[in-house]
Amino acid sequence: MKKQSVKERIVETASDLFYNNGYNQTGINQIIAEASVAKASMYQHFRSKEDIAVAYLKQRHINWMGSLTEFVSNEKNNNEKLIKSFDFLQTWLSGVNYRGCGFQNIICDLPKEQQKIKDQVVLHKNDVKKLIHSLLEDKNNQEELGNELLVLIEGAIILSQIQKSDWPIIAAKNAAIKLLS
Amino acid sequence: MKKQSVKERIVETASDLFYNNGYNQTGINQIIAEASVAKASMYQHFRSKEDIAVAYLKQRHINWMGSLTEFVSNEKNNNEKLIKSFDFLQTWLSGVNYRGCGFQNIICDLPKEQQKIKDQVVLHKNDVKKLIHSLLEDKNNQEELGNELLVLIEGAIILSQIQKSDWPIIAAKNAAIKLLS
Amino acid sequence: MKKQSVKERIVETASDLFYNNGYNQTGINQIIAEASVAKASMYQHFRSKEDIAVAYLKQRHINWMGSLTEFVSNEKNNNEKLIKSFDFLQTWLSGVNYRGCGFQNIICDLPKEQQKIKDQVVLHKNDVKKLIHSLLEDKNNQEELGNELLVLIEGAIILSQIQKSDWPIIAAKNAAIKLLS
Amino acid sequence: MKKQSVKERIVETASDLFYNNGYNQTGINQIIAEASVAKASMYQHFRSKEDIAVAYLKQRHINWMGSLTEFVSNEKNNNEKLIKSFDFLQTWLSGVNYRGCGFQNIICDLPKEQQKIKDQVVLHKNDVKKLIHSLLEDKNNQEELGNELLVLIEGAIILSQIQKSDWPIIAAKNAAIKLLS
DNA sequence: AATGAATGAGCGTTCATTCAT
DNA sequence: GATGAATGAACGCTCATTCAT
After folding, report:
1. Which nucleotide minimizes the distance between its C1' and the CA of B42?
2. Cα torsion at C141, C142, C145, C148 (round to 10°)?
3. In chain C, whose CA is at the least distance from the CA of D101?
4. Looking at residue B171, what is its pLDDT?
5. Cα C149 to the chain's mean position, in Å?
6. Ranges under pLDDT 70 in chain A
7. Which of the four pLDDT bands, split at 50, 70 and 90, describes residue B1?
C-alpha cells in the first residue's frame, strides 16, 4: 500500500467523479473533500479545474489503451484482435453500467473556452484510430475499413449508454465481422 | 411574420442555447434575457429548467424526424432511403459545424435526478430505431441489420463531432452500403 | 352540502394553511391552488395576503370564542366555568398536536408593516380578557385575578406548543384552582 | 474594542435581525450586507440559514441565562430569587419594546423541515425549567410548583408582547407570590 | 509546500402583486 | 365576476478562483 502524493490523490478522486458523475456535475469542493486536500493545495498543483480534467484524460487515455491492448493480446492475428475489441467494449461498458466514454462525455457539454480538454479528446481518438488502422496494415482498403470500424466503436459506446444495454455493442461486432470478411 | 407567444419564444431561445452551447452552459438568466421574458413569467410556463429541456427535446424530435423523412422522401425504395439518410447526416451536421446530436449531448453530463430528460432521449432514439427498422421490413435479417445501421448513425454523429469533420459520416455511409448489399 | 362562495373557499383554505403551516410558510399560490380559485379572482375579494389573514383571524376569533363558551356552558357557576376553561385548552390543543394559538403564532414573525394583523390579534386577546374578567364579576380582586388567569392561559398555550405536551396546561389549571380558592 | 472575526460579525448581525425583525423577515442578503461579508464567506462558516439561527439561539441561550442568573444573584434566598425573576422579565422586556422571547418567536412560523431550530428552543426551555426547579429544591411540591411558575413566565412574555405592556408581567409576579407563599 | 478564509458572480427558484381581456 | 399571463424583486445557495499567512 504505497502512500499517494497529493497530486495523485486529486487526479484519482477527480477521475472517479468526472467519469461517473460528469464534469459539470463535479465541483472543486467535492473533489478536495473526497481527496482530503486543502483547496489552496489543489490550486498549487493545478491552475484550474480544466487542468485537472486534462490530467484525468491523460491518465484515462493511458489506462484505456493499455486495457484494450491487453484484452486482445492473446488473439493470434489482427483480424481476431479487431473483433475481440468489441468484446472488450462489452466487458468494459457492462462493468460500468454503460456509463460510456469519458472522452465523448466531456466534450458534449463544455464551456466554450476550454480548448485544452477538447485537444485531449482528439488526441485520444486519434490514437485509437492509429491502433485500429495498424491492425489493418495488410488490407488494401485499410483506410476505409478502419474508419468504418471506428464509427462502429463510437456508435456502440454512445448507443449502449443511451439504451443502457449491450445490444448496440453486439450489433457493432456483427457489423464488424461482416465488414472484415 | 407571426407574433410568437412567450412560451414559444422561451422554447426557441432555449433550444438554440441548449443545442449550441450545452445544457449546463446555459443558465436561466441567459434564456430569459435573450427571450426578453421576465423570470417569473418563464416559471409560469415551465416548472423548472428541466421542463424547458423536455419541451426543447420534444420539439427537436419532431423537427428532426420530419427533416430526415422529408430528406429521403424522393428516393424510390427503402434501400435508397436508408443510404440517403447518411447524406442527411452529412448535410445536417456540416451545417451546424458538427455540433452533434442534441439528444446525445444532453445525457452525457446531466444532474443525477433529471430523469425526464433521459426519458425524452430514449424516446427519440427508439423512434429513430422504429423508423430504420421499418425501412427494412422486407429483409429477413431486419432486426440485426437495423441495429447495425443504428450504431453506424450514432457513431457517425459523435465521431464527426469530435473530429469536426465529415469523414466519419462518409465511412458510416460506406459501411451501410456494404451491409445493405 | 351547501355550495361555498369563492370568498368562503379562500378563507377556509387559507385558515387551514395559515394555522397549521404558518403565515409565512403559506404562499398565495398554494392558497389559490388548494381553493381552486384563479389568482386574479382572489385579488378581487382580497386586496392583499394580509387581508386574507385578517379574514382568517376574524373567523377564527368567532369560532374559538364560541367553542370555549360552549365547552364551559354546562358548568353551574363562574368559578367552575373558569376552571373548565383549562380543560378546553387541553381538549383543543391535544387535538391539533399542540399547534398553539393562531393569534400568538402570527404576530411572532410578521412583516413590519402589517399592522392590521396585529390589530386583530389584540382585538381577540382583549375579548378573551373581557370574557375571563366577566366570569369574575363578583370577586373583589376581579382585575388582578383575571389578569393572572390570562397569563396562565397564554403560558399554557405557548409552552405546550414548545414542549408538545399537556403538562403546561395541567400546571396552569392547578395554579388557577389555587388562585381562585 | 477588539476586532471581530467574520463569524462573530455574522452571528451578531443575524441575532439582532432575527430577534428584532423575525427569522422569516430576515434574508441572507440583509445579513451579509449589514455584516459587510461576502455571501460565499458566510456560507464558509455556516452551511445554511438554519445553522446561523442555531448559532444565534445558542448564544442567546447563554446570554439570557447569564443575565437572569446575575439579575437575581443578590437575593438572599431562593424564594426571593424566584420572585425577582419576574422583575428581570420586566426590565428585560420593557427594554426591548416587548419584543418577546427569541425562542418562542422563532418556532411559531417555521419551515416544516428545520428541526435543528426546534431542538434549540426545547433545549433552552428545558434549561429554564431546570433552573426554576432547582430554586424550589426544598419544597415538597417542587415539581408542581415549578411547572406553574414556568407557565407564568412564558405567559408573561407572550402576553406582554401582544399587549405591548407590562401588566401581564406584573400579574405573573403577583400570581407567583401567591403560589409561593 | 501547505492552508483556511474570503470573494464576485451566478445558480435555479419563489414571492406577492398587477395587467389586459 | 372571473381569468391566465406577466412582472420586479428577492429568495437561499453554489460556483471556480484568489488571498494572506
Report:
1. F6
2. -140
3. C108
4. 98
5. 16
6. 1-3
7. very low
pLDDT at D6: 87
pLDDT for res B130:
97
State the residue for C-alpha cell 382583549. C126
**Residue C44 CB in 7 A reach of strand F:** yes
D interface residues, C as partner, C-beta within 8 Å:
21-25, 100, 103-112, 121-122, 125, 144, 147-148, 150-156, 158-159, 161-163, 167-168, 170-172, 174-175, 178-179
Burial string for A8-43 (b: 16+ CB within 10 Å, else e) reads ebbbebbbebbbebbbbbbeeeebbebbebeeeebe
Q: Judge whether residue B123 has pLDDT over 50.
A: yes
pLDDT of B2 higher than 60: no
Task: Count how many residues are written for chain A.
Answer: 181
Q: What amino acid occupies position C175? A: A
**Domain at D48-180, CATH class:** mainly alpha
Give the mean pLDDT of B141-152. Answer: 96
B104 interaction partners in chain A (CB closer than 8 Å): 108, 158, 162
Cα–Cα distance, B177 to B171 (Å, whole number): 10
pLDDT of residue C127: 98
Burial letters B161-177, b for 16+ CB under 10 A, else e: bbbeebebbbbbbbbbe
Residues 6+ apart with CB under 8 A from D132: D82, D85, D146, D149, D150, D153
Sign of CA dihedral C3, C6, C7, C13: positive
Sequence ranges of the domains in chain C: 49-180
pLDDT digits 0-9 by tens, C66-103: 999 999 999 999 999 999 999 999 999 999 999 999 99
Residue-wise pLDDT tens digits, D101-112: 999 999 999 998
Residue pair D18/D56 in contact by the 8 Å Cβ criterion: yes
- Give B49-180's CATH code, choosing from 1.20.1250.20, 1.10.357.10, 3.50.50.60, 3.40.50.720: 1.10.357.10
What is the distance in angstroms measured between the alpha-carbon CA of C20 and the sugar C1' of E13? 24
